[in-house]
Specification:
The complex is a heterodimer of chains A (338) and B (577). Chain A is built from twelve helices and two strands; from the N terminus they run H-H-H-E-E-H-H-H-H-H-H-H-H-H. Chain A has 338 residues and is mostly helical. Chain A has a single domain, classed as MetI-like (MetI-like fold, Orthogonal Bundle). Chain A has a two-stranded antiparallel sheet. Chain B is α+β, with helices and mostly antiparallel strands and 577 residues long. Chain B has two domains: 299 residues, Periplasmic binding protein-like II (D-Maltodextrin-Binding Protein, domain 2, 3-Layer(aba) Sandwich); 223 residues, Dipeptide-binding Protein, domain 3 (Roll), CATH 3.10.105.10. In chain B, a hairpin with a 3-residue loop joins strand 8 and strand 9. In chain B, helix 6 packs antiparallel against helix 8 and helix 13 packs antiparallel against helix 14. The radius of gyration of chain B is 24 Å and the shape is globular. Chain B starts with 44 loop residues before the first strand and ends with a strand. Classes of the chains: A mainly alpha (338), B alpha+beta (577). Chains A and B meet through strand 1 and helix 11 of A and helix 7, helix 9 and strand 15 of B.
């Protein structure tokens, strides 16, 4: 995908801070490319809906710890009186024990509130996915710029590193190293044991194996950007490498990065869930979407609501992020037509 | 090691077994307690579905309750065995198998004599001899090759011990100090004599339960390579090879004659028994409940997962059975961490066994236990120290904890064998109970590394989980292996004493009990020791595990009870033709 020329120029000519963002939408004349993109995005109803869901997801994730602290949500207290002990501890009543107190029913076996657990799980899910995405994008962007800008030997080395990382059996590695790596972090590096260390491990590994895709895209972009006049001008004026990378080139990459970000988030949300299923990541009793899902898959017949809810929630979040990403790409790059 | 590998045994009166179990009644809605209504018939193929692959098929290396009893029914006959019974509450008894009687003890239980039958044959037609027994028993001493089995029996035979603690005799492969062994185990024609260091009044029960005292053919022994080799003297033999992950197929052994087997423990109904290992529990039960094709002829040793209980109704309930297993699970306070008796008492008082059992699946998964010993073991008595209500008493616990002089909330780390949502829920349920009493709980689930970690004496957990079933129906196979600090605690490992419990009083009482030659008197002594363990809160009993199984609709004469450690009795089960 090529970044439209108009966009690049606007960024070069308008220094940061002087962007006419506050000029208001009502003025017909003189709209910046950003405003044009935003206007296009707002017209796309599906994307706006997806954006609202994502916003709600983020808001929930931020508020959940406060709600748990204040006791509005209670993901840990048992309510075993609501369970049928003759039937393997599934909730009494229909629809997984849905009631005024438990809007999404209670968990089989323990009677813990499903809604509270899901909401609290969202916090961990967002924290892990977001952090992993930042790690992957950070590594990928820096290496992609260096690779594309330098060319030659450096480019080859980074290119081979990308190939190597992509061909690495990362899932096996994740599983095999989890015990050792977490022990190393809590022992040698003094990371607090438990949820933090487990989450950190997943973040680092997902991030480390997630960067090659983004590095390739960035490199492709940089190959064309580095030939442009403003880069030559900066170079002639004696700008340092660092300035060239991060002040001249990076600002022209934000559109693909933003799109890639919205596509990477859902991939990592699903990955966290999958890894929980394989016993890697944050451990019970701390709820994450992944470990709730792991439990729920056994209840397809016995307790359909409990089976369906976490999977449905993950699906909504992932689909919303994907639609948001598509919408952003359409808005930022109107030349691409589906 | 704990719950996956301890057999228990039990048995019934001698009158047992004349095939017709029709009187045993059909299934009730909650399972029929281990007998099926259909009469057995010869022929057909039985399918055995399971999850955990057998680690060993070598008789001297087996230690999983399921394998010990299954292989005894199919391929490995012993000196004695347990008869088939359809009575789930039957008292234990042993019957002669390859021996002509159940053995004669003399010298206060230190010497046992058996006469080996002259008409039993190996699958190649050669007779089973006293020398085969002598050779089989000697293999356990080769501790570098014959691993995994109940090695502690080494110390029972009267063979001189080196300063290292191991016998100087090191098995038939190296053969150092062979003369020591030749004195402890002798053959005089068909007469096998075993000399033990201490009284072993119920040795014939051990011989029926374990496969360590089974015969082995010297010319077939390839050491480590024989791990999955099955050379049969029972009614079946292996067809082809045993696949370590998949399993194998048993077919009839034409050298076996019914006249050579008066134990009535091997009806050998199916013509063929096909083992499939490595299936997930959910897959097994999806198949057995659907009951289509070959799965109608299937049995399993895996329990119904709690999420499947709702499907066990109507016709499927008629195919279910619910019996007590020999396994008790319990918690062990770590004595290196939790030194204050009042804290341990508070922990016990705060333990909500009902919540824990509900998390495991409710009353079909287990019932609250009153001792670490299962009720059908000789010597069982409710431990008088464990009188709190099963759901715990958080108020009393809190009072004890406040009285202990420790700072509240008292932080504890609970290390448990996790890895499945069910076990995680059980731990969470226990933690909630403890929190109410003023403990601050950190949960530490471990999977494959569980035993490795909790067996380290430096382990910093305050409480760990354990499960145990007796090796043979005697309380003597519960208390010393778990709580005798001298056999368990070393520099690098705490053996089976995961709580690092060390009591000179208990050790002394164990020594006293070992000297008693009468089974009942010895059991009474062990009951006293159990009382002492309760006073120290050396353990906190959780639940007696129940076995809830479903079988295919074409399976006949289905029996499972303590006689076969609660697992389906392959000596009795047949299939419709």
């Amino acid at each position: 995908m090529t970044v439209p020329v108009t966009e690049l120029e606007s960024h070069v000519t308008a220094p940061p801070g002087e962007e006419p963002d506050d000029s208001g939408v009502q003025k017909v004349a003189g709209r910046s490319p950003t405003q044009l993109a935003l206007a296009r995005f707002r017209k796309d109803k599906l994307s706006m809906a997806a954006f609202c869901v994502v916003a709600l997801y983020v808001a929930t994730a931020l508020v959940a710890p406060i709600l748990v602290k204040t006791g509005v949500l209670d993901p840990l207290t048992l309510h075993q009186d609501l369970l049928d002990v003759n039937m393997g501890g599934i909730p009494k009543g229909s629809f997984g024990g849905i009631s005024a107190d438990h809007w999404l029913g209670v968990e089989p076996g323990t009677g813990r509130d499903v809604l509270s657990r899901l909401v609290y799980g969202i916090t961990w899910s967002l924290f892990i996915a977001l952090s992993a995405t930042f790690v992957a994008m950070g590594i990928g962007t820096v290496l992609g710029i260096i690779s594309g800008f330098s060319g030659g030997f450096t480019d080859s080395v980074i290119g081979r590193a990308i190939d190597l990382t992509l061909s690495f059996p990362s899932t096996m590695m994740l599983l095999a190293l989890s015990g050792v790596a977490v022990a190393f972090m809590t022992g040698t590096l003094q990371v607090p044991a438990g949820d933090v260390a487990n989450a950190l491990y997943v973040i680092l590994v997902l991030g480390f194996f997630g960067w090659p895709g983004i590095a390739r895209i960035v490199r492709g972009q940089v190959l064309s950007i580095r030939e442009r006049e403003f880069v030559d001008a900066a170079r002639l004026l004696g700008a340092s490498r660092g300035r060239l990378y991060f002040k001249e080139i990076l600002p022209n990459l934000w559109a693909p990065l933003l799109v890639y970000f919205t596509l990477m988030m859902p991939a990592f949300i699903s990955a966290e869930a999958a890894l929980s299923y394989l016993q890697v990541g944050v451990k019970p009793p701390t709820p994450t979407l992944g470990n709730i899902l792991t439990d729920s898959i056994n209840y397809s017949v016995a307790d359909f609501v409990f089976f369906f809810t976490p999977a449905f929630l993950i699906m909504i979040i992932v689909v919303s992020f994907n639609l948001l990403g598509d919408g952003l790409r359409d808005a930022l790059d109107p030349k691409t037509h589906r | 090691m704990a719950i996956n590998r301890k057999p228990i045994v039990a048995v019934a009166a001698a009158a047992v077994v004349s095939v017709s179990l029709a009187a045993c009644g059909g299934g009730s809605t909650s399972g029929d307690g281990g007998g099926s209504s259909k009469e057995a018939s010869k022929g057909g193929t039985l399918y055995y579905l399971t999850r955990t692959s057998a680690e060993h098929m070598d008789p001297q290396r087996m230690y999983v309750g399921r394998d010990l009893s299954n292989m005894n029914r199919l391929v490995y006959r012993g000196l004695t065995t347990f008869p088939i019974t359809d009575d789930p509450d039957a008292k234990f008894s042993v019957v002669p198998d390859l021996a002509t009687d159940t053995g004669t003890a003399s010298d206060g239980g230190k010497t046992w004599e058996f006469t080996i039958r002259d008409d039993a044959k190996w699958e190649d037609g050669k007779p089973v001899t006293c020398e085969d027994f002598k050779y089989g028993i000697s293999r356990t001493f080769a501790t570098d090759v014959i691993t995994g089995g109940p090695n502690y029996i080494l110390s029972y035979l009267d063979v001189p011990v080196a300063p290292s603690g191991l016998p100087e005799y090191n098995g038939p492969y190296k053969g150092d100090h062979q003369e020591d062994y030749d004195k402890a185990v002798t053959c005089d024609g068909a007469k096998l004599t075993l000399h033990f260091r201490n009284a072993w009044p119920d040795f014939n029960y051990a011989a029926a339960s374990l496969r360590s005292f089974d015969p082995y053919r010297e010319d077939k022994d390839q050491g480590e390579k024989s791990n999955y080799q099955i050379f049969s003297n029972g009614p079946y033999k292996l067809e082809g090879k045993w696949d370590a992950t998949q399993g194998g197929t048993f077919v009839r052994n034409d050298q076996y004659t019914e006249s050579s087997d008066e134990s009535d423990s091997r009806q050998a109904n199916p013509d063929k028994i096909v083992y499939t290992q490595g299936l997930e529990n959910e897959v097994i039960y999806d198949r057995i409940i659907a009951d289509s094709g070959d799965d109608a002829y299937a049995i399993t040793d895996r329990r119904v997962p709690p999420a499947y209980y709702t499907q066990v109704t109507g016709e499927v309930a008629d195919r279910s059975s619910l019996v007590d297993s020999p396994y008790v699970s319990y918690l062990l306070p770590n004595f290196n961490q939790m030194k204050n008796l009042k804290v341990r008492q508070a922990l016990y008082m705060a333990t909500d066994v009902v919540a824990s059992t509900t998390a495991l699946g409710g009353d079909k998964a287990g019932t609250p236990a009153k001792s670490i010993v299962a009720p059908n073991i000789i010597g069982y008595a409710e431990n008088p120290n464990f009188t709190a209500p099963p759901e715990g008493d958080p108020e009393a616990a809190k009072a004890l904890l406040e009285d202990s002089g420790e700072k509240l909330p008292y932080p504890i780390k609970f290390t448990y064998a996790g890895g499945t949502p069910t076990l995680d829920k059980q731990a969470a349920a226990l933690a909630e109970g403890w929190k109410k009493a003023g403990f601050k709980v950190t949960l530490d689930p471990l999977t494959d590394t569980y035993y490795t970690i909790i067996q380290k004496p430096s382990n910093d957990a305050d409480v760990v989980w354990g499960g145990w079933g007796a090796d043979w129906p005697s309380i003597a196979t519960v208390i010393p292996p778990l709580f005798d600090s001298r056999i368990n605690l070393t520099e690098n490992s705490n053996g089976q004493d995961y709580g690092n419990y060390k009591s000179d009083t208990v050790n002394k009482m164990i020594d006293e009990a070992a000297q008693i030659a009468d089974v009942d008197e010895q059991a009474a002594k062990y009951t006293e020791i159990d009382d002492q363990l309760g006073k120290d809160v050396a353990y906190i009993p959780l639940e007696l595990t129940k076995f809830y199984f479903v079988r295919g609709s074409k399976v006949t004469n289905y029996i499972n009870n303590p006689m076969t450690s609660g697992f389906p009795d392959l000596g009795a089960i047949g299939v419709e033709n």
